[in-house]
Amino acid sequence: MAYDYEKSIRPGKLPHIWCPGCGHGIVMKGLIRAMDTCGLDRKNTAIVSGIGCASRLPGYLDACTLHTAHGRAAAFATGVKMAKPEMTVICCGGDGDGTAIGGNHFIHACRRNIDMTYVLMNNFIYGMTGGQFSPCTPTGAKASTTPYGNPDPIFDISKLAIGAGATFVARTTAAHPREIDKLIVQGIQHKGMSIIEVLDDCPTTYGRRNKFRSVVDMMKHLKANAVPIKAAAKMTAEQLQGKFLTGVLFHDTEKPEYCAQYAEVIKKAQGA
Amino acid sequence: MSKAIIESGNVAAAMAVQLARAEVIAAYPITPQTPVTEKLSELITAGRMDAEYVAVESEHSAMAVCIGAASAGVRAFTATSSNGLLYMSEQLHWAAGARLPIVMCVVNRGIGAPWSVWNDHQDAISQRDAGWIQIFAKDHQEIVDMTLKAFRLAELVHIPVMVNYDGYYLSHTYMPFEPPDAERVDAFLPAYQYKHALSPEHPESLNTVTLPDARLDVQGVKRGGYMDLRHNLHEEMGMAIEVWEEIDRDFQTHFGRGGAPVTDPYRCDDAEVVIVAMGSMANQFRVVVDRLRQDDGIRAGVLALQMYRPFPGAMLARALQSAKHVMVYEKGLSYGSQGALYGDIKSALYPYPSRPQLHNFIVGLGGREIPTESLYQTTKTSCAPDRILPPAQSDVPQWIGLQL
């Protein structure tokens, strides 16, 4: 029997705005399955986003959703979590939103290790505004603002998250739908800041400028270059050139979670 | 022979910036501004424009880059819309206080929350007290001409200039316009020379903490405190109106266009009903004015306000005090009060003995359609002789086009 996604979608919200072939829908389905697996109560789940195509995702879901300012998802979500630590807080957004205009909030949410799960859809470009290069556009790739190739080096989002202090960091791709929900489940269950980076495709503004003739080509590219972290351990640096590691890249269960730490401060201040 | 081309308003703006030889462009994408800076990045990478393009990570950084560039004596430009402008706000005040002649196109769009990508003027209105000069274009030709003139104005008065034009109505529509000849632009707009440009040969400390009181500098010359510097900004903003008129006269001698830089009246000479509006809506009103005159015998006119800050209060008072009715239509307001432009006009008329009946209409917020028919009907109804409202009612803005 087909999986019942519709029960999780807000009535009247479909069709969604994403272009044919966009991977964001795959991620949304993965998130719905993960929420079901975790048995999340929708009234007690806040899904927060900033701006961009990926940030439209929460609006479709039947939960407590906030569509906020560009780059501010992590900041708004921090406010929600601090006010209501019992809520499950999930952020959704893209690479431009999360690591450019929102880069500061992103790294500081990681540093605090506040208990939330950030599903960051990295499609290597600003899709909604028409394909300007983002901090994740590969060097040499074409974008509407780099018609002759991007000279900038990239952010490796997962490494950035690990370096900034997130305690659960995992990566997969839109071509690995089954892995998406598995990793989100682990992220939700982990007590602390979880970053799930999903490498995604944008046929409309990235693919067509960068020699991916079809959506299938982009998906094949994501599939062919994803290397599970265990397999990578047996590969040479040369073999790993141009590949991206997938699976759980980092998991630390020792570092204290922020809300718990804060509760301690409150206790202390109250002389308990 | 006309050299007119047909292009979008955003491309018109980009062409003007190219002709102005801006040397640093820093921008962040936001709808509906994005095509301006995309076009500029294309011109720069294709070698058709000698400038540095800095693709920053936010609007706040875009204005910071422009401030840095202008402080180093370089002609800087950026463009934005809506929440992008609001995110820049801190830097906007900084650029004005630092007296840096930055030019920015603001492609007007409603602001969130809730999100809207469609046109209104609330973005510009929310920044009216930042110390920037604000001008509003009505069509593509004005986008080109005003942007060129804006660079000269900013550099003469050392105050940054915002060139506003309506999102979609102007940014994404295609209209014929004449791009000025590049050589003539060079003659009209000389290279930017900044007296206080950062340079290792003449070290200066810019915009350091300034005490409340005036004091002697290291050479023993008395220098103003914070309040004196702010007073200078205010006074020189006021003087910018005349400078803008002079620039327009010179522009006319070079290019044959212009003549209405501050206000642009249409059939106002004998008008007893004068409509005041900014941006493309003022052009839309020309049809309404013609119809009111032809079908109803109402002597109507429309006065487009081209320069909103500095506010040409005395000029407006002269133009409006002999009218029976002044109807201010605007796409933005000061929440809990009135339309911002309406309040300004009322204030400008107050010192004069003859005061027309004033009306305030709020229209088109967040892209709500503004049917010409409804502009015609509201204007006609509001000036009917039997419809005299008591002051407490007539001074309240009327929202046109509400659906709930």
The whole-number mean of residue pLDDT values of chain A reads 96
Radius of gyration of chain A: 18 Å
Distance between the termini of chain B: 52 Å
Q: pLDDT below 50 for ≥5 consecutive residues: which ranges of chain A?
A: none
Q: Largest interface by residue count?
A: A-B, 21 and 22 residues
Instruction: Give the oligomeric state.
Output: heterodimer
Describe the biggest sheet of chain A?
8 strands, mixed
In total, the number of domains of chain B comes to: 2
Q: If you consult CATH, what is the topology of the largest domain in chain B?
A: Rossmann fold
Q: Which class of secondary structure composition applies to the elements of chain A?
A: alpha/beta
Number of helices of chain B: 14
Strand order of the largest sheet of chain B: 3-2-4-5-7-6-14
Sheet-strand content of chain B, in percent, reads 15-25%
User: Which fold name is given in CATH as the topology of chain A?
Assistant: Rossmann fold
How much helical structure, as a percent, in the residues of chain A?
25-40%
Q: Supply the CATH superfamily name of chain A.
A: Thiamin diphosphate (ThDP)-binding fold, Pyr/PP domains
